[in-house]
């Protein structure tokens, strides 16, 4: 009986300490500064837009009479725990920022959850963001010093207002980009998986918005995967939204109708962002397996060319890993403490921090990409990869791409919890995937920067794709993907060689990776990664209305005249 009493007393003491000091424990676990203030939350604020439509928001206020800056977060995924798992995360972030001396306003974007109006992705966010900023600056608790924070869509809405108001003094856009067309059309091919998963996410959130069952929240992404499967191979593709969502949707139909980067909807949206005019200090964050990565690196380059000094942090994450890693919370606090509160010595010395995979280390650099030497690894007879030029009589390799059984997207930079680094051995066993592999390395090889493939190829079709993927093969034979890209061949896009072949340059995006001693470098060549890049049907018909298909018979050359090669930026 005495033991039981002592146990109860001990548990009660632990419960008291946890309740009393849980905020400090969270700070320790998250590796952020200790909390300074208690937080008061005012829910359901109504903010009128310029056309009279009211948007809803929650205000997290630190318990201090001192004037403090404001952080604005705008989201279509639910602003608090009542709405969704994403809302729970935003409420958690709002509390953490406010505890450290910031007013935080978290707003439902137009047409989402408690905000009125119709949700039209991207296209209302400039006007609504400006109206929200004006409202913020008029509040008695506002100092007129505002920071913007958030990832993915929450980052896009930052870019849409970042150049609009001098009150914006700092921003932290993570796993996002201003290059919206490049996100929906990576390498010029429609990302069907992204489009269907994203629209299905909104429908699923709406259907479960009143659920109080947290288990249901955690199954949302699996539910989406099941929902989209019947649509992935359906023809015509224009009906895919109806199959998944039960209705034709304006966003999906607009995306597939306006497939060119110079179409008005993309050009106008890009002009609204005015990236080159953004003067507020900016910290860009991404992951090596995030589908926004290439666009985010383009944004970084644009800011550098405009004379800015952005910070850049890239971790080993895919899109959803980046969200739960909470690195944007840690870095956001340091960034805002520096540029909103004026606290010196809060930032690291060098502006670029990269997670170098393979050795699993964070490394700091002055810029991206760091200085590197191009190393060519040539495709060889026997599916080998070597720094030596191939033999002049090296015979080509062949494979057939069948659109009815498209080469699948396995891991990588996809909008899915199944993205990221995965084992590729089953994929590489397919007859429509060629692999070229080096001998085990005698010394480590460090690669940091943009990776590409120069591929001499030929197809019996004028419309076809060539896909490349860089992999690290461990001594026990596991093939793990590093980075990848695709080139969509169309008539007139490339000039043919004298023998009729094409020299195709495939951008495999970027990475930071060390191939360890004893590991091998592997290059995959195929003609698709569906549905990350929608399958090429091999016809002249427009991709969204096409109801026929043709198989492509592909030839890959690797001889002295046509030296196909993997090109790596080697830093060590």
Brief summary of the model shown:
With 572 residues, the protein is α+β, with helices and mostly antiparallel strands.
Low-confidence stretches: none
> Helix coverage percent of residues?
25-40%
> In one word, what is the shape?
globular
Distance between the termini: 67 Å
Largest sheet: 7 strands, antiparallel
What share of residues are in beta strands? 25-35%
Total helix count?
A: 15
> How many E strands?
21
Structural class: alpha+beta
- Gyration radius, rounded: 25 Å
Q: What's the pLDDT, averaged over the residues?
A: 94
Q: Would you give an account of this structure?
A:
Helices cover about 30% and strands about 30% of the residues. Strands 11, 12, 13, 15, 18, 20 and 21 form a 7-stranded antiparallel beta sheet that branches. The chain is of the alpha+beta class. The chain has 15 helices and 21 strands. The termini are far apart. A hairpin with a 4-residue loop joins strand 9 (about 350-355) and strand 10.
From the structure above, extract its key features.
572 residues, 15 helices, alpha+beta, 6-stranded mixed beta sheet, globular, 7-stranded antiparallel beta sheet
How are the SSEs ordered, and which strands pair?
Layout: H1 2-30, E1 39-48, E2 54-62, E3 70-75, H2 85-99, E4 103-108, H3 125-138, E5 146-151, H4 153-159, E6 168-174, H5 180-184, H6 192-207, H7 214-218, H8 220-228, H9 240-245, H10 250-257, H11 264-273, E7 283-289, H12 293-305, E8 311-318, H13 319-325, H14 327-339, E9 352-356, E10 361-365, E11 373-380, E12 384-386, E13 397-401, H15 425-428, E14 434-437, E15 445-459, E16 464-473, E17 479-489, E18 502-515, E19 520-526, E20 552-557, E21 565-570
Helix pairs in contact: 6-8
């Amino acid at each position: 009986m005495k033991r039981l009493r002592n146990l109860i007393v001990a548990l009660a003491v632990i419960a008291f300490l946890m309740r009393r000091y849980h905020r400090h424990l969270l700070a320790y676990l998250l590796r952020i500064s200790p909390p300074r203030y208690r937080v008061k939350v005012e829910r359901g604020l109504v903010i009128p837009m310029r056309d009279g439509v009211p948007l809803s928001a929650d205000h997290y206020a630190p318990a201090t009479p001192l004037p403090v800056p404001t952080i604005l977060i705008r989201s279509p995924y639910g602003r608090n725990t009542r709405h969704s798992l994403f809302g729970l995360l935003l409420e958690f972030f709002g509390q953490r920022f406010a505890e450290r001396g910031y007013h935080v306003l978290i707003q439902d974007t137009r047409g989402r959850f408690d905000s009125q109006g119709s949700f039209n992705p991207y296209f209302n966010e400039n006007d609504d963001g400006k109206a929200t900023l004006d409202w913020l600056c008029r509040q008695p608790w506002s100092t007129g010093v505002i920071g913007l924070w958030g990832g993915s869509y929450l980052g896009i809405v930052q870019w849409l207002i970042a150049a609009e108001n001098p009150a914006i003094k700092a921003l932290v856009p993570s796993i996002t980009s201003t290059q919206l067309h490049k996100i929906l059309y990576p390498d010029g091919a429609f990302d069907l998986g992204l489009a269907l998963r994203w629209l299905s996410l909104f429908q699923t959130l709406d259907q479960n918005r009143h659920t109080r069952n947290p288990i249901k929240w955690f199954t949302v992404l699996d539910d989406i995967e099941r929902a989209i499967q019947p649509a992935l191979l359906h023809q015509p593709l224009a009906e895919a939204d109806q199959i998944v969502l039960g209705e034709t949707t304006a966003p999906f139909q607009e995306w597939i109708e306006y497939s060119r980067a110079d179409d008005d909807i993309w050009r106008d949206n890009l002009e609204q962002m005015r990236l080159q005019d953004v003067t507020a200090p900016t910290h860009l964050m991404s992951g090596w397996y995030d589908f926004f990565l290439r666009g985010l690196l383009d944004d970084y380059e644009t800011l550098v060319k405009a004379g800015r000094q952005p910070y850049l942090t890239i971790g080993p994450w895919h899109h959803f890993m980046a969200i739960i890693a909470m690195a944007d919370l840690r870095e956001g606090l340091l960034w805002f403490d520096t540029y909103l509160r004026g606290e010196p010595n809060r930032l690291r010395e060098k502006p670029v921090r990269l997670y170098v995979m393979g050795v699993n280390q964070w490394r700091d650099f002055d810029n991206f990409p760091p200085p590197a030497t191009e190393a060519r690894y040539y495709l060889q007879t026997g599916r080998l990869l070597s720094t030596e030029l191939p033999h002049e009589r090296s015979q080509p390799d062949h494979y057939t791409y069948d659109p009815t059984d498209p080469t699948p997207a396995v891991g990588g930079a996809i909008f899915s919890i199944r993205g990221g680094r995965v084992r590729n051995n089953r994929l590489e066993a397919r007859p429509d995937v060629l692999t070229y592999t080096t001998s085990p390395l005698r010394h480590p090889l460090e690669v940091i920067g943009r990776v590409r493939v120069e591929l001499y190829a030929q197809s019996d079709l004028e419309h076809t794709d060539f896909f490349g993927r860089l992999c690290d093969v461990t001594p026990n034979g596991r093939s793990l993907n590093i980075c990848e890209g695709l080139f969509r061949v169309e008539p007139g896009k490339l000039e043919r060689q004298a023998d009729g072949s094409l020299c195709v340059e495939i951008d495999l995006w970027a990475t930071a990776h060390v191939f360890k001693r004893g590991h091998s470098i592997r290059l995959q060549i195929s003609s698709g990664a569906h549905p990350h890049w929608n399958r090429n049907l091999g016809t002249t018909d427009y991709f969204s209305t096409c109801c026929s298909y043709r198989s492509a018979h592909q030839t890959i050359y690797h001889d002295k005249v046509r030296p196909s090669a993997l090109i790596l930026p080697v830093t060590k």
